[in-house]
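Internal ticket - ligand job 436, histidyl-adenosine monophosphate:
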Amino acid sequence: MSQFISVPRGTADILPEEALLWQEMECQTRKIISSYGYQEIRTPFFEETELFARSVGQTSDIVQKQMLNLAAQAEAARDEGSKAISLSLRPEGTASIVRSYIQNRLDKKERISKLFYIGPMFRGERPQKGRLRQFHQIGVEAIGPESSSPFLDAEVIALSSSLLGALGVTDTVLKINTLGTAQDKDAFAEYLKKQLASEISQLCPDCNSRFERNIFRVLDCKNEGCRKALAKLQLDYSYISEESRYYYVRVKEALEGLGIAYVEDPKLVRGLDYYTHTVFEFSCPRLGSQDAVGAGGRYNNLVEQLGGPAVDAVGFALGMERILLAGAQDKKELQQGLDTFMVCLDEQGLSKAFKLLQDLRARGVSADMNFRLGSMKSQMRQADKAKARFVLILGEEELKSGEIALKDMQQGTQERFGLDAVAEIVCKIQGNKLVK
Ligand code: HAM
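stdout (structure tokens):
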């Protein structure tokens, strides 16, 4: 027997029943996000590796440990004459959206570009519950010279909160923090170094190197010794400028105005380098160790850092698999049935049934049949499985009289129609669909 090849580690198939949940999630997302004025953007699933190194950060775990690279040499060989460029599957969406914003000169089109995306992201992490190598995000990015307002930070947080609520995740904790401007971040890093200098021996080898290269990463470390050292930290925002602190106060006031509860966490720095000012994270404690269902923040320097104009930006991304793990979406409720299933009992009627099936579909009626025919009982069982509201029956008797029977599976009633009376059949099915 041939050897079976299964799905790669950390990835998953989405089977038809689950796909309904995904469709529902995407449909609700699109509706809610567009009500906030965002428009969809689609970027490639892979980009130059350097894009992520320069945005997410060379020293971030994502770039250091989780990038899924494509074979650069092979790419160069295909693309004759080009130098070997390292390509990576996108680990997140923000860098790609900013790249696209710059490349397509979206700054010339709008003072603020409100963009959203739904799609797969790839990180070569050690897979576990809620942590995959291919996962999906719902994300928004508001970029442009007019994106600098504490109300927009609050609006982005409010949007993520209402999305989570609409998708059935209501028991989340929202943590927020501010990192201030780039200068404030430098002061914050110096402050951290001073505070942690006496604890260096307690830190893990990774954090010892992070201490010099990017001290913020120490705050994300899960190592026991590091956590103990971090517990002693006193973070009082003294390293943040007065102006940045005022911006943060206004974000908090705007959240309070909307009745959005939050917990302030001065240690929340997020594992990506591009953030400035507001950062936030929604966690769902029920999910265990991978409890972040979504996160985001402001990134005022990234567009310029990647070669674009000096414009501000803010955004977030939600993890769709984690939403499904946490959510109360009822699978049964979402099971869609067919409008009609065609039961054909006679080989002679097959071509007529086949034609009618196509005519029905062309008029927006969902319809299916089994071309291998089979007994009335087995075909009715199939109709049942397909949750068909109506069953069209074409037996020997109907065929003789040039008719077809339409059975309403909910009412238990049956009517006959001429085999060519497509419009009448559609009318009957659609009419009943409306009063369902
Ligand atoms: P992130 O915190 O890296 O932020 O990811 C956002 C969300 O994606 C997480 O909260 C989590 O729900 C989900 N997620 C991340 N990694 C995995 C994984 N391996 N398996 C399953 N789910 C995962 C970002 O990606 C930023 N781009 C968010 C952002 C947008 N900031 C500003 N704009």
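Auto-summary: Residues 16-34 form the longest helix (19 residues). The chain has 18 helices and 16 strands.
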